[in-house]
């Protein structure tokens, strides 16, 4: 039996000679690589991936708008987790040492507001409907986000907005906006138009080259909101998902997709198809190349078809 | 001699104990599920003639977007003489979803169900010879579909709509589709007792039964089905009759009437 000292010597020699693989528990902490790109004077965009939530992208699928305010930066939408909010806060101090002065949430979906936790002591501004929906859905969203994203979500607790925005002309940290209280993607969708540059921050009423999502959508209301946004004729549109739009393509593409979706589901109900059969329908070329397809189409069939079908099929008793 | 019989008794006891949790036919489960052998015995009655068979197609989205309404299409039309299709999940508080007795209809059914967790889902098809052919797929899910109250109770007019049927026939494609309004309470939500449609029978105008469904708790709220017929043998109308476990009668007639 070797002495304790001999054993220690042996251990030291082994440790010196062999490079052990890093144990799993020592893996690098998940971190977001957020890059604010200047898009207009005093305005930056952090562009999200056009994929669905995954453990590879950590849920960084949303676009955030960053605007220079009088006492710091105004952030529109805060990402999918506490860790995302922390990365946002740290990254933005490189643009303005004073950091974030005010937060806006365009609507109550978790990829747009789960970073709020980091900014809980600042004004977090949204429509009243968004505040209510975030309060009632937050825990259920949170369960699902932990399931989808795993450790990226560690420590995240949903923090609903704390300040209701007025409509029409508003000032946020000294910066002037037109606030449009709309709906259709959810029951409360806020659009901000920046007075100085004309930039429209459209939230998820506008998608570009990424499939629109419909878990709380009302398609007719959404189309009416898109008409309102078309009429603004903004020189640039920052969509909720997808690249910055300087031509209005995001509004046209979102509208065309919703029209196709509605017609496809209606025709399917009229010909007696069920959801699995509809999901097997190939997407037209103009929509097949969108990010997160065909998954989003499949999700939309689940969200929209049961009610639509019940309204279309005739009574049989 | 005494010693020999004791050994025999011990041997019989051992094989009985073995039989209690091992099916007569042990299959290699493509999903390596820990529950399949249990269901093979409990749901199918431990048949002597059973196999996994790719000809039984079970099609569903890979992930359940809405745990209350998971769509499923089961297609056993590649098999002849199908008498019964048992649709079930491996994991969930209530494994059996329904039994379909296709009769004069094709052995093919579209339905929706409530899912409680990620699970393999199976269609076990029994043919006239007594042989079972089992197909399946995997569905990922956040879950909770079986243990939540019905959404009907969010509105106060659910009782007026109870048993309403929407649907029609499409002669050219041989389809019969219907939606029956019913809460389909599983009995697993706090303080809400079991309340489900147990049976739906489909018959032609002369009263001859063409197909039958025996429903269990996991069928979705407002059950929705498509039955498929050979278009040449499609009846001009289809009577639907059923009842729930509270004795409410369900009755309607599907015709080729144009949709709204």
UniProtKB/TrEMBL annotation, chain A:
PROSITE patterns in the record, alphabetically? TAT (PS51318)
| Family matches, as SMART domains | Lactamase_B (SM00849)
- Output one GO BP term: antibiotic catabolic process
Does Hydrolase show up as a keyword for this record?
yes
What range does the record give for the signal peptide?
1-26
Q: Which Pfam families match?
A: Lactamase_B
Where the record annotates domain Metallo-beta-lactamase, the positions are: 61-241
Q: What NCBIfam families does its record include? A: SoxH_rel_PQQ_1 (TIGR04558)
The name of this protein is Quinoprotein relay system zinc metallohydrolase 1
Q: What's the source species for this entry?
A: Ruegeria marina
Automatic annotation (TrEMBL), chain B:
The reply to whether 4Fe-4S figures as a keyword in the UniProt entry is no
- The ranges of region (Disordered) come to 240-260
Name the UniProt key words of this record, in alphabetical order. Answer: Signal
Residues making up the signal peptide according to the UniProt record: 1-19
Enumerate the InterPro entries for this protein: Fuse-rel_SoxYZ, Ig-like_fold, Ig_E-set, SoxY, SoxY_sf, SoxZ_dom
Domain Sulphur oxidation protein SoxZ intervals: 175-253
Superkingdom of origin organism: Bacteria
Q: Where is the Ig-like SoxY domain?
A: 43-146
Provide the protein name.
Answer: Sulfur-oxidizing protein SoxY
Source organism (scientific name): Ruegeria marina
